[in-house]
Design a protein that fits this description.
31% of the residues lie in helices and 27% in strands. The chain is an alpha/beta fold.
Length: 324
Amino acid sequence: MTASAPPQQLNGWTFQVEDLVKVFGADAPPANDGLTLEVSPGEVYGLLGPNGAGKSTLVKQVMGLLKPTSGSIQLGDYDLVADPAAARQLCCYLPQAQMPIDSFKAREAVEIAGLIRGASPAETRRRTDELMSALEIEEWAGTFGAKLSGGVRRLVGYAMATVVPGPIVFLDEPTNDVDPMRRRLLWERIRAVAGEGSAVFLVTHNVLEAEKSVDRLAIINEGRLVAQGTPSSLKSEDRGCMRMLVMLVPGAPDPVEPGFVMSSTRVSHNLATVIAEQDVGKAIEWAQGLIASGQAEEYALGATSLEDVYIRLTGEVSTIGHDR
């Protein structure tokens, strides 16, 4: 196997996207519409947004798989638009779809990825051992991909993407199918990759996980960057507020909302509302009335979260925020 020659060492680099636009057809709205962001080494940076928001289009342009209509993508001294081959060497990627490893044993798949990335056989073996131990998947090292569970296969894919991490690491829904215990181990490894100096881009619908794990994030909707900052800074507008989630009876119409409800969004039978702290008592009485009348099954009250910001800016509830 001929390994790829790694690009020259980057020193003091930043990653910058400037006024990025991608249009797929003359009559189509832009998939990316003037996106601008900057990420530094060691950051875990979240890319949040509903389906069709433009997250995947952005990633494909950074990876050199799509050419922007206009705008620039710069990693240190590398112009990734002019040099897409360098982009593919400098960036690592875990796609949302499972890795195609049916015919490879788990260890083989990770080691092949390391060799392709330009590491020596000895270094590849060391890193593979380290990752499989940290993720507690050693018992499946000799198992073919076709026989792995979805969660273990996802962890093997993560190991393939990070066995030799580049300056930029893209992780698209990395915790999909992963059990709760190993999900915690995976988050520890994601932070470790950032600690080694990579910039980690976390592409996710899971707003609640992102809030706990990212340093900064961008919320993208309809191709545009609608908010960017730390989780705390993005929640500043909701200080002094509480969130009440009312689980309506399936098929029930929207209830009449009292005047103290500041905002609300319904997805399926979940009605997410934001209320002022001083109105908590009235909100509980209202929710209990909905249950008594047969309109609702239960309710939950808590502090506002990043998801409330996400709802306000996109009009959608994250796909993994509630069990019901």
